[in-house]
Amino acid sequence: MTSPRKLLVLALAAALAAGAPVIAAAQAQPAAAPAPANMQGSPSELVLENTRRVLETLESRRGEFTRDRAALQRFISGEFDSMFDRDYAARQVLGRHGRGASDADVKAFGDALAENLMRRYGSSLIDFNTRLQVRIKSETALPRGLGVKVSSELTRQGGEPIPVDYLMRRAGSGWRVFDVMVEGVSFVQTFRQQFDSELQRKPIAQVARELRAGQLSADAGTE
């Protein structure tokens, strides 16, 4: 899976596991170099630390996860809340439909979207290409103090580098991911566009129920 749209699918699946999507596939070398001094304690370092842990778990438990997809789903669910800002991302996906929405409705939508994505794409992590390489390019402030963007570059043999960006914001005493972009294709924008027509016709709570029941599906695209 190396096309940009398929990489977005994998990025979303990995985001549910560690908040540091496609990078997880790139930390395949057993001894990673320490983070540069200017990255230590930064969102960039947090991305690398969490993805190393996820990769190690995927590699050490690959046989188990291949046989037992329920165990894989439990692993993804257990990691999700540590880094991914589910409620804030849900508000971004809802866009104008989320204005004035209750926290309970936003949470229900975010939970249902995450569960739907985990069911559809969680197993993609088992098929990750660990021969990929990643390089952190920069860490820059987002406009209006919204957080930071960690920009990386995913490289593969015989292919052009693929840019992967992670948008992160302060949450409590730490940093959490709220959007992922692969070659400019955004998690938030993808699902905002997908659910816009549904949310024009139905309340948020109903869309959340239909997502949870599998009557609606989050489709990251597989072109």
UniProtKB/TrEMBL annotation:
Know the name of this protein? ABC transporter substrate-binding protein
**Record-linked Gene3D superfamilies:** Tgt2/MlaC (3.10.450.710)
Which InterPro entries does the record match to this protein? Answer: MlaC/ttg2D (IPR008869), TAT_signal (IPR006311), Tgt2/MlaC_sf (IPR042245)
Taxonomically, the superkingdom here is Bacteria
Instruction: Recite the UniProt keywords alphabetically.
Output: Signal
- The signal peptide annotation in the UniProt record is 1-24
Question: Pfam families this protein is in?
Answer: MlaC
Organism classification, top ranks?
Bacteria, Pseudomonadati, Pseudomonadota, Gammaproteobacteria, Lysobacterales
